[in-house]
């Protein structure tokens, strides 16, 4: 019994001695991280679009009159010279019209000769007083009517002559046939496209461009154009024409880039890619490894330089590039961003910066 009391007293003394000691200091975990200092830099984005080569001047050639086409002497891909015959209409109706106009002119001229002779007789008789004034006036009127009939017949003859010439379709400039719109034997209408002619001269690279790119691209930017099947074939050009209205289906604008001295391999219809450098306002870019997510949004860890603790912050991204991201909002130049070790951090954690900050 005495022995038990001694043990209890010893235990009580030990507990009282423990109560007088100060609690042990809590160990704070300091995690090493790699960081960068955010800095603004000029933004340059290379935009690449796909298009094709067209002639700068391309015209649809057609007859000025309707008729049955009896001949088309060119096909797609043929090179033509100025004045070369492209197609012909059946000229029978127009030739008959020309003969009728010639006959009408001959009749009008005969009538004019007769009326003029009658007028001269009446004028001589009037001078001697052997004819009344009214008879002279009638002769003068008949002569003037005959002269008007001759003038009309001459005009009709010129029209008929032109219609005969219009039965033959000729090239108005040298170029290459790129399309055909009718075959021999068809009845064609006035103005209907018979052949499409890419006139010899400059070439354009044609692209469908989104409206957002038109707003951000410089007005006089230089475009580098390459053949898609052979990137070594290159030409440069500048924007020559922008469509005033967007395509109703694609909502893009047709842009023509005039090519300066295009190589011969850039044939009409060739598929090309056009690249242009777009410079925008300075932006802040960070390595993609700095990104994490919080509240279903992109976020980054920001280091407080005073106490070396970290905090999460949501950011808005402008675009992704290979290995980097461009920040639109949420990060200012000069702030310290954690770029390695982001998955092992928690808000308020102490960190130790590894290596020099760049």
UniProtKB/TrEMBL annotation:
Keyword Transmembrane helix in annotation: no
Subcellular locations according to the entry: Cell envelope
Domain CusB-like beta-barrel: 207-275
Coiled coil: 98-163
Keyword Disulfide bond annotated: no
Keywords of the record: Coiled coil, Transport
GO terms for cellular component: efflux pump complex
Source organism superkingdom: Bacteria
Entry-linked Pfam families: Beta-barrel_RND_2, BSH_RND, RND-MFP_C
GO molecular function: efflux transmembrane transporter activity
Residue ranges occupied by any Multidrug resistance protein MdtA-like C-terminal permuted SH3 domain in the UniProt entry: 283-343
Stated family: Belongs to the membrane fusion protein (MFP) (TC 8.A.1) family.
The name this protein goes by in its record: Efflux RND transporter periplasmic adaptor subunit
Species for this entry: Rhodovastum atsumiense
